[in-house]
Write a structure and sequence with these properties.
The chain is built from 6 helices and 2 strands; from the N terminus they run H-H-H-H-E-E-H-H. By secondary structure, the protein is mainly alpha-helical. The chain has a domain of 116 residues: Winged helix-like DNA-binding domain superfamily/Winged helix DNA-binding domain (Arc Repressor Mutant, subunit A, Orthogonal Bundle), CATH 1.10.10.10. A two-stranded antiparallel sheet has the order 1-2. A hairpin with a 2-residue loop joins strand 1 and strand 2. Helix 1 crosses helix 2. The N terminus is likely disordered.
């Protein structure tokens, strides 16, 4: 397949055309390696802190809740009613794993299963009123923490951070992760 010719311009928000990375052993290649190492280190710290925050948030919902179950609640809140298979696909785990967590969340009164109006054989998962109220409280508190920590940043810096994180997430999504 022959690549299309580039006009040299991109639409706002589009990534610039792909270029070959600098060669290893060149000054440009060494600078790239240092920059990638710095990003890798900072992402490792962020992910570690993110796991700690997820644990705290899940414990605010229920003392025995696993952070992955909190993640399911977040998805249900964002997506609305969804089938178990779709939910499992979104997080990349098997149905049995999600099913066990959903059973726990149903026992807590946070999630319900209802017949799918489009297919009576299927069931849709959704937050209960109690689940919605609980998640609203916990997520409002989380946003307040983000506001406190990021409030000293100017809006263009936050926009740039969001844009670069989106670019990184797009790459991971493209690669099936």
């Amino acid at each position: 397949m022959i690549p299309a010719e580039s006009t040299g311009s991109t639409a706002p928000g589009d990534a610039p055309p792909a270029t070959e990375p600098p060669l290893v052993g060149t000054p440009e290649g060494e600078h790239l390696d240092e920059a990638i190492h710095a990003v890798e280190h900072q992402l490792s710290l962020l992910w570690r802190r993110g796991r700690a925050v997820s644990l705290r948030l899940s414990r605010q919902v229920h003392p025995d809740m696993d952070p992955s179950a909190y993640g399911l609640l977040s998805i249900l809140r964002r997506q609305g009613p969804i089938r178990l298979t779709e939910l499992a696909g979104l997080i990349g785990v098997g149905k049995p794993t999600v099913s066990r967590q959903i059973t726990f969340l149903m026992q807590l009164g946070l999630v319900s299963k209802d017949a799918d109006p489009l297919d009576g054989r299927a069931q849709l998962l959704q937050l209960t009123e109690h689940g919605e109220a609980t998640m609203a409280r916990v997520q409002d508190a989380r946003r307040a923490i983000f506001r406190q920590r990021l409030g000293e940043w100017d809006t263009p810096a936050l926009d740039a951070l969001a844009e670069n994180l989106e670019r990184l997430n797009t790459i991971y999504e493209r690669d099936g992760l």
